[in-house]
Amino acid sequence: MKLGLVLAVFTNDVERPLDAAARAARAGYDAVVCSDHLHPPDRPDRPSIDAFTLLAAVAAANPGLGVGPLVTRASLRPVGLLAKQAAALDEMSGGRAILGLGAGDRRSRLEHETFGLPFPPAGAGIAALEETALAVRALFAGRPWPGGEHVGPLAGPLAPPGSPEVWIGGRSDGVVRAAARAADAWNGWGLDLDAFAERVGRLRRLCAEAGRDPDEVPPTWAGICLVGEDRADLAALERARAEQGLPGDLWRGTSAELAGLLERLAELGTSWFLALAAGPPDRVELIAEAARGVRS
Description:
- The structure is a single chain.
- By secondary structure, this protein is of the alpha/beta class.
- The protein has one domain: Luciferase-like domain (TIM Barrel, Alpha-Beta Barrel), CATH 3.20.20.
- Helices cover 42% and strands 17% of the residues.
- It contains ten helices and ten strands.
- Strands 1, 2, 3, 4, 5, 6, 7, 8, 9 and 10 form a ten-stranded parallel sheet that branches.
- Helix 1 crosses helix 2 (51-61), helix 3 (79-92) crosses helix 5 (122-140) and helix 9 (255-267) packs across helix 10.
- The N and C termini lie close together (5 Å).
């Protein structure tokens, strides 16, 4: 199982994610990823660093470290431009880029309205997501995209070509189905182990229905993680988080419990574990240490 760190982008302090990426590189993470928002959900008055600009800077500063958006909404950019940007990240990272795609939800509408972008209805959004994944994968393979109902023809070629893995992320049945048919991997964000396992089973069944080997579309897990060295340390972190009024919807446990979670995720065939490390900066290294015995 590979290890990734999710960078925080809802800040006007660019040094914060850049420093976290450097820590991840030194600690042996395989990649860093970040969300792609025009502004934080429901907060157009708050900052959000552009994902592709940040990831390009990370790739330039940390040779050998994978980079990618997790996730970018398929409706944010013209598909050809999206493919070009992802291919450039793949070139800059030495062929280690990931392109995570999502459909967004009702909270995404405000971002589109703020920046004058059309916002597709839910059903059309998932169909466009699937076509976007198929279109960029065709361009990455050096083939033109003939066009579909939602994504028009794209001739290519991309130069440099690039060939990042294309993931589809989301929890809904429609998104899991799109991943089974069109992606290189599926990502589930913030799911507990039982919910994640249920969707992994569904993913494998949908892959078989689509005529694909389920092993071709592995599951990946991502989410916010609050990790303590022991129970006392974890309790102190939880108190500090509560005092700051921060949300409690995250995975929490000791480093030993995190290792147990990783072992169970590995048994489900999970190919990546990607954590947004809550708490002090040294949690980046603590997570890496807990994962060391589980990674292959």
